[in-house]
Design brief:
By secondary structure, this protein is of the alpha/beta class. 31% of the residues lie in helices and 29% in strands. The chain has a single domain, classed as 3-Layer(aba) Sandwich (Rossmann fold), CATH 3.40.50. It is globular, with a radius of gyration of 18 Å.
């Protein structure tokens, strides 16, 4: 039986030590509005080690997706420090952040964000070509084979099921060798059975190498499959639970 250890009763926490894939210190995100500044994240301290599978849970509007976007460099912190893959994201330009994401991070969204006019193979090859990879299509084939779509290479997104489209999105996220996968409700547009299949794939990919998986989800069963669950409430970390074998 797994023993759950509550790292924090309230407030924030992180895993100390070396080998962190993600480290956030006192991270704040405050956005302007007509009614005045809105605090989304109110001082997040957290570290995620290389190879961990971490779920982020909490009610709608609590800051889960914003936290994921900060880690991805898609949302700038207005306070605190953000370090991902041993690189500080503070002060980087948009172009520098784009290169950083290309080389280090794969993002899987609820919506698949595939290019409709491109085949599955072409969708996966695009980030590799942008990176200047000479054998982009061979590597794209390899990644699609890895997710069980070697027979759908020449199909367009509109010819694929929802589960197949999400597999293409996962292959694309992995294609450039990203060692951090950020997933935002990746099964939200899928039926239950297909969703389970997709998550089996993500966890298999995470456990077979040193890939770090950070998953935003509303599904408690899905969260429980991760080795650690961070609960966000009102822009703060409420609990940080580690599951130990």
């Amino acid at each position: 039986m797994d023993a759950r250890v509550d790292r924090t009763e309230t407030g924030n926490s992180g895993l100390p030590g070396k080998g962190d894939a993600v480290r956030l210190d006192a991270v704040q995100v405050t956005l302007p509005s007509r009614a005045g500044p809105v605090e989304i994240l109110k001082g997040i301290d957290v570290a995620i080690s290389n190879g961990e599978a971490v779920s982020i849970i909490g009610p709608s509007g609590s800051g889960k997706t914003t936290l994921l976007m900060v880690i991805a460099g898609l949302e700038a912190a207005t306070g605190g420090t953000v370090e991902v893959a041993s690189k500080s994201l503070n002060g980087l330009t948009e172009d520098q952040l784009a290169v950083f994401r290309r080389d280090n991070i794969g993002i899987v969204f609820q919506s698949f964000h595939l290019i409709p006019a491109m085949t599955a193979l072409e969708n996966v090859a695009v980030p590799l070509e942008l990176r200047g990879t000479g054998d982009a299509f061979d590597m794209a084939r390899q990644q699609l084979r890895r997710v069980g779509l070697e027979h759908r290479l020449d199909h367009y997104p509109g010819q694929l099921s929802g589960g197949e489209q999400q597999r293409v999105a996962i292959a694309r996220a992995l294609a450039a060798g990203a060692n951090i996968i950020l997933a935002d409700e990746p099964t939200g547009n899928l039926d239950q059975e297909t969703g389970h299949t997709i998550m089996d794939l993500l966890f298999d990919l995470q456990s077979s190498g040193e890939t770090t998986l950070v998953l935003v989800t509303h599904d408690p069963d899905l969260a429980a499959r991760c080795s650690r669950t961070i609960e966000i409430r009102d822009g703060l970390i409420h609990t940080d639970n580690v599951t130990q074998p």
